[in-house]
């Protein structure tokens, strides 16, 4: 009797565990699929929302919450659910990023270039003239770069939703011309707004923008009034050059094939990390601050990429460009060269 009781106990335990795992699977898969339907709306607003309601009711009936009874029988309902979810996965992963949407003018053009040795001619460098109300005058231009004239590199973090999350940009300094900044962004369509949740569900394509600093940085500090910080980074000359070339390769990649932005795995910070890792002879440590990008400067400080003669608190104070960017507004000289100069005033050297 004792052996039979033990056997029955373990069978019941196993069944209970399987039931719990299946319940967890139904809950997580339903939440994921309903969010995907909400974001993508493949059947239009009304029918997509109706599908969400029907799917939710079916899922609740499977796990016996609020809804009792079965569509056919419990075993058949489980099979129907699994097959339906498999079809949902096929639908979702068949969504292809595209190049031919009606793009917002800010990301309408794609960066291209011609390279002859260390001389690079960039096409479609953005240099918009931004106004206080958020409107802009469109201007795309060419720029010629000598990779041997790169003298410095800066990481810019722009905070727009609290201290945990920041947009990351990378700017290159040159001996013979004004800086150039790169930004990996979502490629928004006209009338489209950013949604962090949408970024998990193939809502946006990726875009690489090369720009004048008075465009990409100015619009964040002076037009959108985000809090912007500029950190000069310690990096050997060979690696600075290699990183610039990595950006060119990323431009090639995105021109050849559109790719999806992902809020967690393929964003403005993780992709920069991947490019830096590609040129770095040593493995860089993975860190939560690559996801909580607002703390990226602290990560760089721990890697000794920032001048260690200053504390992190001092770095944040000195790197904050907004007060200097506001002073720029009052100056008669409104050139982009002067903007780049004034936001660097008082910054520590890399050594």
Mean pLDDT: 91
C-alpha termini separation: 78 Å
**Share of helix among residues?**
40-55%
Give the oligomeric state. single chain
The topology string of helices and strands comes to HHHEEEEEEEEEHEHHHHHH
Biggest sheet strand line-up:
9-8-7-6-10
How many separate domains make up the residues? 2
- Main beta sheet strand tally, sense and closure: 5 strands, antiparallel
What is the 3D form?
elongated
Low-confidence stretches: none
Cα-based radius of gyration, to the nearest Å: 26 Å
Strand residue content: 15-25%
Distinct helical segment count? 10
Give the structural class: alpha+beta
Total strand segments: 10
Write up this protein.
Keywords: Membrane, Transmembrane, Transmembrane helix. InterPro entries: Lnb_N (IPR025178). Residues 139-294 form the Lnb N-terminal periplasmic domain. This is Lnb N-terminal periplasmic domain-containing protein. By secondary structure, the chain is α+β, with helices and mostly antiparallel strands. It has two domains: 3-94; 105-344, no CATH class. It is built from ten helices and ten strands. It has a five-stranded antiparallel beta sheet. A three-stranded antiparallel beta sheet has the order 1-2-5, covered by helices on one side. Strands 3-4 form a two-stranded antiparallel ribbon. Strand 6 (150-159) and strand 7 (166-174) form a beta hairpin. The longest helix is centred in the first third of the chain and has 39 residues, at 2-40. The model has no long low-confidence stretch (mean pLDDT 91).
């Amino acid at each position: 009797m004792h052996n039979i009781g033990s056997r029955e106990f373990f069978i019941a335990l196993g069944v209970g565990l399987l039931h719990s795992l299946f319940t967890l699977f139904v809950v997580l898969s339903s939440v994921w699929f309903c969010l995907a339907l909400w974001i993508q709306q493949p059947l239009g607003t009304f029918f997509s929302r109706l599908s969400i309601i029907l799917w939710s009711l079916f899922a609740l009936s499977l796990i016996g919450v609020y809804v009792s009874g079965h569509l056919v029988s419990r075993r058949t309902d489980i099979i129907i659910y699994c097959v339906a979810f498999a079809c949902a996965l096929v639908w979702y992963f068949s969504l292809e990023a595209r190049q031919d949407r009606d793009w917002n003018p800010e990301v309408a053009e794609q960066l291209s270039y011609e390279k002859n040795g260390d001389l690079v001619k960039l096409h479609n460098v953005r240099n918009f003239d931004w106004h206080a109300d958020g409107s802009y005058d469109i201007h795309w231009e060419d720029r010629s770069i000598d990779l041997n004239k790169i003298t410095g590199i800066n990481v810019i973090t722009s905070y727009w939703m609290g201290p945990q999350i920041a947009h990351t940009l990378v700017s290159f300094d040159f001996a013979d011309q004004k800086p150039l900044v790169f930004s990996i962004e979502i490629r928004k369509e006209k009338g489209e707004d950013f949604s962090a949740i949408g970024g998990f569900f193939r809502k946006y394509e990726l875009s690489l923008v090369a720009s004048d600093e008075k465009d990409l940085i100015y619009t964040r500090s002076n037009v959108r009034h985000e809090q912007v910080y500029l950190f000069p980074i310690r990096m050997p000359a060979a690696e600075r050059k290699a990183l610039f070339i990595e950006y060119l390769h990323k431009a090639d990649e995105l021109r050849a094939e559109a790719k999806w932005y992902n809020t967690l795995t393929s964003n403005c910070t993780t992709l920069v990390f991947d490019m830096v890792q590609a040129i770095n002879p040593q493995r860089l440590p993975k860190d939560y601050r690559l996801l909580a990008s607002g703390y990226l400067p602290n990560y760089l400080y721990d890697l000794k990429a920032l001048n260690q003669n200053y504390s992190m608190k001092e770095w944040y104070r000195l790197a904050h460009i907004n007060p200097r960017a506001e002073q720029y507004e009052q100056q008669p000289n409104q050139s982009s060269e002067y903007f780049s100069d004034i936001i660097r005033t008082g910054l520590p050297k890399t050594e």
